[in-house]
Amino acid sequence: MHKITKIATYGIIIFVILSFNFFLPRIMPGDPFAFLTGDPSTDMPVVLDAGIKAKLLSYYGLDKPLSMQYYDYIANILHGDLGWSIYYNAPVWDVLRGSLKWTLLLVGTSTVIYMASGIMLGAVSAWKKGKRVDAGLLTFILSLSSFPSFFLGLLFIILFGVDLGLFPISGARTPFMDYSTSFEEIIDILHHLLLPAATLVIAHIGGIYLLTRNSMLNVLGEDYILTARAKGLREGYIMRRHALKNALLPISTMIALIAGFMITGTILVETVFAYPGVGRLLYEAVLVRDYPLLQGAFMIITLLIIAANLAADMIYVYLDPRVKHK
Amino acid sequence: MKKIIAIFCLAMLLCSAFSGMAVASGERIVKVGVGAPSGDWGYPSPFGFYPRGPGYIRMSFIFDTLTWKDENGVIPWLADSWSKSYDGKIWTFSLHRGVTWSDGEPFTADDVKFSFEYMKEHPFAWISLAHIEKVEVLDPYTVAFHLNEPDADFLDFTVGHVVIIPEHIWEDVSDPKTFTGDDAVMGTGPLKLLEYNKAEGSYLYEANRKCFKGEPIIDKFISMTVSDPAAALATGDIDEASFWGISAEAASGFESNPEFETKWGPSYWVLNLIFNYHEYPTNNADFRKAIAYGINRTEIVEQVLHGYGIPANTGIIHPESEWYNPDLPSYEYNPAEANATLDSLGFFDTDSDGIREYPEGGDLEFELITVGRYTGEAYLIQSQLEKVGIRVDVKAMDWGTVDAILKAGNFHLAISGHGGIVKPTIQPDWPATIYDNPAYQSLYEEQKKILDYEQRKSRIYQLQEIIADDLPVYALYHPKMCCVYNPEKLDTWFFTKNGVGQGIPIEMNKLIFMFDPWRYDSDENAIIDRSEVIDAIQDYFDGKITKEQAIKVIILYFQ
């Protein structure tokens, strides 16, 4: 019974969000063909004559009543068809797939690194509260993280890219490189990944570090820590098994919350490093009112967030078995 | 003496042919970079690119038009010559013979007829071909266009813009937008597409060695997305980039760098302050003039563009266009004049709060709408107008919203810009559509059909006078444009007269890939002399040019 309610809840949530994804872009002022006539930052404005505009509207099915468009949209999604991007002039899924893999690589790598190091450093900091290690870490991490990410990125580009020439400054790999081995390709991709990933890690580590530190401090005041110490357990063992495991509860909730943000929140870093990710793509899609692409991109993000929530639910059960028995 | 040199030249060429001295070392690859957000301008097929100048440019490397443009104006391209009937309704073009598509099929007049008919059915970027009644094939190398009405821009903006596509490929394509693959990018131009990556915004082309204009001077051409074009030039990631407006400040840093060269050109672009021509009080021409006198355009150019622009022609046409009228009022900053006019219109500061009141009561204040990137200009105008007692609220929005508001006419003041200001081809208040001055509109329609150059010029001068006097918009500035390149890789970059196609101000005209023997005329006296021909032969031995290209220079020497 419990499982069925859960599945139904997720189903309803997905349906509501999909509907929002359909209607929200259409509520924005502006129309998806305005870009065809040029925008004020580029050249060549043109006047679309009524005939051409009518042709375009019917080509993309935008001349149908909204209810029909909505029906087609839901029906197509159920068939796994995300539609055709008006601006990018290609299937929505193809447009998204090309960027999604780079975003997942960038976000995945940096998230794992900053989560792990943030939790570790936060735990150490709380454990050594009031000592020099704690004060040092607190000052160091907070001052580093308070740099805006785009500023940090620019600094890295100038320092490590231009002045020292150690890292490439744009893109996810060298364009049109003939790799002799796939090892060479992996090295090239990692070489391009390092600066943007480092920027993201530094920009995000502060939050998770502070959260872990505070959560740890609460847990360390609990009676069972005292009990564990009284039992004569080793300090490292108490920190990992008794304190950290309990302190991780609020953190796992936060991971689920920021999963969606990580996809879109990288836009500044993607822009600074010209990294071909989804954030930048989504931003462009909003500007040009590309309804099909917006719907597709939001749907992917929705699914990712829901998946992250599901994962958090499961991790919670593992971390706190009491949840299961309720 | 000439004979001796000639014999020497031929002997050298023959020698080298046997010894293989001139084998080029490695491929000649040229890379250009485009800054954030992306260098992706769509699949470079005639129906796949995004309808923007850079998209058209990346397609035009592959596909050709009947006429083209260089730095001096229209030149023959797929058509060798043309003539028009007395009434300007029939244009006849003689096509270049021996042109082949890159699959080896010959290019003929049937392809031209097919292309124009296909693009009437499937709209090609920007252009309406409704005035072309029919295209007639007179023989395989002669084609005639029958128009409903004369078109003064036919040679450059119509046939110089519409690309010719191979009939044997496209006749079976019913939905050109979804058509991709090798056949979709098969043209006659100097380059062929090898690879395109949408997500990474990168293009890889290779030279079309069978191009009818001769073998290109490069082997590969790459267009890629970079984080920062100036930094990418400095690290050697790219060999060329262009900058405009405030970003040209980064370009000027390269002027003192001996490894790079810079070229400055016109942007054919204008930023306008658009007035609502119908709403009180901006419907009053004197009121609009008062605002113009209250705005210091020089200060805007200095502070916002750091000097990388010029105060605009108040008649909108760019000063580097041949149609530019130099004798228009410029409304030099004159707050006293602005104050006097506002006084005479009955706007006084009755409650002494520094802001004038309407004669009917209420503060004289407006919203000034614009997109985020022009907020610098907007806030400067706000502070300038405050000094003459007009309060302006800056509202920055995204482009889609600004566009919708302007089209609906729900504004008083707006800042927006546009390109394509070589000749009057769009309404001055674009994208708003409220300027309906009948004197302007009838003259605007009339000049489009006048084929006589001087007659048309006088009409275009009058159109500019009307805008400068009636001020439906107050043109603020034209940004400067600059390209920075590494001359070791390619040094043929130039700015096209009146822009590529319909006025695209980009220095990537495909002529840069073609060999021009006249570039050896280093003293520019229109004669290739002895030392110049020796330069060419030297370059040939250095592997910089091919034997055919060296021979072209030698032929000029004998002429």
How would the blueprint of this fold be written?
The complex is a heterodimer of chains A (326) and B (559).
Chain A: H1 2-27, H2 50-59, H3 66-78, E1 84-85, E2 90-91, H4 92-127, H5 132-145, H6 149-163, H7 182-220, H8 223-230, H9 235-264, H10 267-272, H11 278-287, H12 291-319, H13 322-325
Antiparallel strand pairs in A: 1-2
Helix pairs in contact in A: 1-12, 4-5, 4-7, 4-9, 4-12, 5-7, 6-7, 7-9, 8-9, 9-12, 11-12
Chain B: H1 2-19, E1 29-34, H2 53-60, E2 67-70, E3 73-76, E4 79-84, E5 90-95, H3 109-121, E6 132-139, E7 142-147, H4 154-158, H5 167-170, E8 191-197, E9 202-207, E10 220-225, H6 229-235, E11 240-244, H7 248-252, E12 261-266, E13 269-275, H8 285-294, H9 297-304, E14 309-311, H10 335-344, E15 365-371, H11 375-386, E16 391-397, H12 399-408, E17 413-419, H13 438-447, H14 453-470, E18 473-485, H15 530-541, H16 547-558
Parallel strand pairs in B: 1-10, 15-16, 15-17
Antiparallel strand pairs in B: 2-3, 4-5, 5-7, 6-7, 8-9, 9-10, 11-18, 12-18, 13-17, 13-18, 14-18
Q: How would you describe the overall organization of this protein?
A:
In chain A, 74% of the residues lie in helices and 1% in strands. With 326 residues, chain A is mainly α. Chain A has helices at 2-27, 50-59, 66-78, 92-127, 132-145, 149-163, 182-220, 223-230, 235-264, 267-272, 278-287, 291-319, 322-325, and strands at residues 84-85, 90-91. In chain A, helix 11 crosses helix 12. Chain A folds into 2 domains: 2-92, no CATH class; 94-325, MetI-like fold. In chain A, strand 1 and strand 2 (90-91) form a beta hairpin. In chain B, strands 11, 12, 13, 14, 15, 16, 17 and 18 form an 8-stranded mixed sheet that branches. In chain B, a hairpin with a 4-residue loop joins strand 8 and strand 9. Chain B has 559 residues and is of the alpha+beta class. Chain B is built from 16 helices and 18 strands. The longest helix of chain B has 18 residues, at 2-19. Helix content of chain B is 29%, strand content 20%. Chain B starts with a helix and ends with a helix.
